[in-house]
Design a protein that fits this description.
Number of helices: 11
Strand order of the largest sheet: 4-5-10-6-7
Strand content: 25-35%
CATH superfamily of the largest domain: CO dehydrogenase flavoprotein, C-terminal domain
Distance between the termini: 61 Å
Largest sheet: 5 strands, antiparallel
Length: about 290
């Protein structure tokens, strides 16, 4: 099947893209990487009146540091996240997670902003941005606004963005010291059945603080296991503390049943995979501590 007819525009600036979105009154779509958009067009799940191509807007593809925060343009591609030394240094969770997205061809085209707007509840980038406390900047005909990723989603494949708003960049606070991530897929490069990301800081006494745990694929949106994370503050991530966090993580999930897994199976996996990732986090913290003392 081929896409329905649409008008094609190639924007030369973010302002022009917003003007075009406003002109079409909700019937236009932004074309960035196109890795999710084009299949949906070809299956005629979406039939927009126009596509607005923003690939020529260089201002949206920048990576910079601003007042201690790391800012990535919406057009920053997965392959840049994978290879950029600044991102590896300042946002190691992004650099780790991006390797689990698709294949080389997908990562050469897919974009950070496109992933966030797509709002796939199994998506790796929405999960990473949620755990890292990222903020999305969006521009519309009435001005700009900042939206924490924790407030970006209304449900599966649905955001709070207005039809005439364009995501321009994503801002990240300083990264925690240590990160960990794992996901389960039925086969390589498939959509995740379940994914877990965790971050935190380990003190010189071996105690952890600021732990954050995020889960993907277990609800309509990626979710933070806040109570589970709070239970780990001040602990040394002992096996008992990790097991309790895994149990508490079940409180925030509402998993679907789909072609990849049942809700019961996902529920069963949550404490197992949370424990797996937290053990990985503990190992990362202990390894860094040894390096500093050697």
């Amino acid at each position: 099947m081929k896409a329905a007819r649409f008008v094609y525009h190639r924007a030369t600036s973010a302002a022009e893209a917003v003007t075009l979105l406003d002109d079409y009154q909700g019937s236009a779509r932004i074309l960035a990487g196109g890795q999710s958009l084009l299949p949906m067009l070809n299956m005629r799940l979406w039939r927009p009146g126009a596509l607005i191509d923003i690939n020529g807007v260089e201002e949206l593809a920048q990576v910079r540091v601003e007042a201690g925060r790391t800012v990535l343009g919406a057009l920053v591609r997965y392959t840049t996240i994978e290879r950029d030394p600044l991102i590896a240094q300042r946002l190691p969770l992004l650099a780790r997670i991006v390797r689990h997205i698709g294949d080389r061809q997908v990562r050469n085209r897919g974009t950070l902003g496109g992933s966030l707007v797509q709002a796939d509840p199994t998506g790796e980038m929405p999960l990473a941005c949620l755990v890292l406390g990222a903020v999305v900047r969006a521009v519309g005909p009435h001005g700009s606004r900042e939206i924490p990723v924790a407030e970006l989603y209304e449900g599966s494949y649905a955001t709070v963005l207005d039809p005439d708003e364009l995501v321009t960049e994503i801002e990240f606070p300083a990264s925690p010291q240590h990160i960990a991530f794992a996901e389960r897929c039925r086969r390589h490069n498939d959509f995740a059945v379940l994914s877990v990301a965790a971050t935190g800081d380990r003190g010189s006494d071996g105690r952890w603080s600021g732990v954050r745990i995020g889960l993907g694929g277990v609800a309509d949106t990626p979710v933070l296991a806040t109570a589970a994370a709070v239970s780990l503050d001040g602990t040394d991530l002992s096996d008992a503390a990790i097991a309790e966090a895994g149990r508490l993580a079940r409180e925030v999930i509402d998993p679907p049943t789909d072609v990849r897994a049942s809700a019961e199976y996902r529920t069963h996996l949550v404490p197992i995979d949370v424990a797996r990732v937290l053990a990985q986090l503990r190992t990362a913290g202990a390894s860094t501590s040894k390096e500093k003392t050697s």
